[in-house]
Design a protein that fits this description.
The structure holds two protein chains of two kinds. Chain A is mainly alpha-helical. Chain A has twelve helices and four strands. Chain A has one domain (about 1-215). In chain A, helix 1 (about 1-25) packs parallel to helix 6, helix 6 (about 130-155) packs antiparallel against helix 9 and helix 7 (about 155-165) packs across helix 9 (about 180-205). A six-stranded mixed β-sheet of chain B has the order 5-6-7-3-8-9, sandwiched between helices. Chain B has a three-stranded antiparallel β-sheet with strand order 2-1-4, with helices on one face. In chain B, strand 8 (about 195-200) and strand 9 (about 205-210) form a beta hairpin. The chains are: A mainly alpha, B alpha/beta.
Chain lengths: ~290, ~230
């Protein structure tokens, strides 16, 4: 039972990550590979504040959001000077910089050893001690993000960012400040990733830089590629599918070393199949 | 709308050379000239797509335009495109802005006028070339507070059925007192629609006047009509 609850918790953390990345990549058309870095900022902020400074969980989440808003705002301003593939390469570099900071700011982040014994969350005075209670918290978070995404994508903001993706020049000519909208989409997306990171660190109670590498960003990107861009159903499906796939492989009875390699091979095969047969992904509404 | 001595160049090519034009409210001004004469460049400068290098523009704050090659939001529906065009807004306001019934009604009225009612919820990418041209014109008409309408070859690619429809729409905008500047190659359309015409050649205004005056001008005949 604990195993199923664990999987559900991981899914409920990764669904918001996929949805928030889709806001940026699928809806706004910004191919960013720095989502794991933003996720890491939230995770490290919560870990450092709750463990070292004894700050409450919710306060640490709020500070994590603040840190991520500042970092993503500055990063977006820098990246906005780049276009197309160069933007993606810039975001690629940003993830590497964040990873290097997590790895080398040893007095703060614990360096490669990471931070362990991160305190369990206490929400409104109630300690979240059992995994079932944590599942409830993470499910509430996931549902709130789904509702928020539903709201924002059906609002005028949702239309505008899609218009920017389809034709930036036309959107500018109609009076919209494209740079502002891109920055806000980036900041919103990063903030949701930050909250997911805070939840992750307090749930696992141990974090190290390996959870926030470039590979993690690509892993998140894989979710929305499989599910399909600009689709909430797609992002949810992609996250569930990519999380469950290696778990299902456990029951095939392959030795662990082969299962790990097989997982990568299967991801690759699915991506190639989708690129060939269904470039919009399973539920996608948009082909980049 | 007035421009004074507008200049623009692409590298060593002088695209606009001291172009001064004046477009009156409630009048349709035509802009004609051979390919590469600077017509679209002038509209691009006036709508801030290109930065003017020299000269002065007295332009209304609110304008709408169409492009020579339709630039549409291909993954939005026709209705969504028109709603988007109605009024620009800040990111903060837009997050809490859900289209009101009045806004939807107003957008649907324009969709009806361009006779695309049965495509209201069709994604623009799924429309034919002619229908997309109509969407672009309708989108420009959707801008609620525009004072100036720039139309870059709006009749190109339109069927014989759609052409009179678009003519009527443009005349309606004229009646509303808007400034209308239209780039067009079809001289019959220029004659029937425009009140005043500027002729551009190699980035310079070579003639101006009523359509008949311009089309009978010797220099225009040589430069543009090849007569």
């Amino acid at each position: 039972m604990d195993y199923i609850i664990h999987i559900l918790i991981i899914i409920s953390i990764f669904v918001p990550l996929a949805l928030s990345l889709d806001l940026l990549v699928g809806r706004t058309g910004i191919l960013s590979i720095t989502h794991a870095g933003m996720y890491g900022l939230g995770a490290y902020t919560t870990a450092i504040l709750t463990k070292t400074y004894g700050v409450s969980f919710l306060t640490s989440v709020a500070v994590g959001i603040l840190v991520t808003v500042c970092a993503s705002y500055m990063l977006s301003k820098v990246l906005s000077r780049l276009k197309g593939d160069y933007y993606t390469l810039g975001s690629f570099g940003a993830n590497i910089i964040l990873f290097s900071l997590f790895m080398n700011l040893t007095p703060l982040t614990g360096g490669p050893m990471g931070i362990f014994n991160i305190p369990q969350a206490v929400i409104f005075g109630i300690p979240v001690t059992s995994t079932l209670a944590f599942l409830l918290v993470s499910l509430v978070f996931m549902c709130l993000v789904i509702i928020f995404m539903q709201m924002i994508t059906t609002s005028r903001f949702g239309l505008i960012i899609q218009a920017i993706r389809d034709d930036t020049l036309a959107t500018e000519v109609f009076g919209y400040n494209v740079k502002d909208f891109k920055t806000v989409a980036f900041v919103i997306s990063a903030s949701i990733a930050s909250i997911a990171g805070s939840l992750y660190s307090t749930y696992i109670s141990f974090i190290d830089p390996s959870s926030f590498t470039l590979n993690e960003s690509i892993f998140m990107l894989t979710m929305i590629i499989i599910g399909g861009f600009a689709s909430k159903r797609g992002a949810i499906f992609g996250a569930v599918f990519v999380i469950l796939l290696p778990e299902l492989l456990r029951f095939v009875g392959l030795p662990d070393s082969i299962a790990a390699q097989l997982r990568v091979a299967i991801y690759g095969a699915i991506l190639m199949y989708l690129m060939y047969k269904k470039p919009t992904g399973v539920f996608g509404n948009y082909t980049p | 709308m007035k421009t004074y001595n507008i200049n623009h160049h692409f590298g060593g090519i002088q695209a606009l050379n001291d172009v001064s034009i004046f477009c009156e409210e409630g009048k349709i001004t035509g802009l004609i000239g051979p390919n590469g004469s600077g017509k679209s460049t002038l509209v691009n400068v006036l709508t801030n797509v290109l930065h003017r290098m020299h000269g002065k523009v007295e332009n209304g704050k609110h304008f709408a335009r169409t492009f020579q090659d339709a630039k549409l939001w291909s993954n939005l529906t026709v209705l969504e495109s028109f709603l988007m065009a109605q009024k620009s807004e800040s990111w903060l306001y837009s997050i809490f802005h859900f289209s009101s019934l009045e806004e939807i009604k107003s957008a649907k009225e324009i969709i009806e006028r361009i006779e695309l009612t049965h495509h209201t919820n069709t994604k623009v990418r799924n429309l034919s070339y002619g229908q997309r041209k109509l969407v672009e014109i309708g989108r420009a008409l959707s801008v609620t507070n525009s004072q100036i309408l720039y139309l870059d070859e709006p009749f190109a690619g339109l069927s014989d059925i759609s052409t009179p429809l678009v003519k009527d729409l443009i005349l309606e905008e004229k009646k509303k007192g808007k400034v209308v500047l239209i780039i067009e190659h079809d001289m019959n359309i220029i004659r029937t629609l425009c009140d005043y015409v500027y002729v551009l050649d190699a980035g310079k205004v070579i003639a101006e006047g009523t359509p008949d005056e311009c089309l009978n001008n010797k220099e225009v005949k040589e430069a543009y009509l090849g007569l």
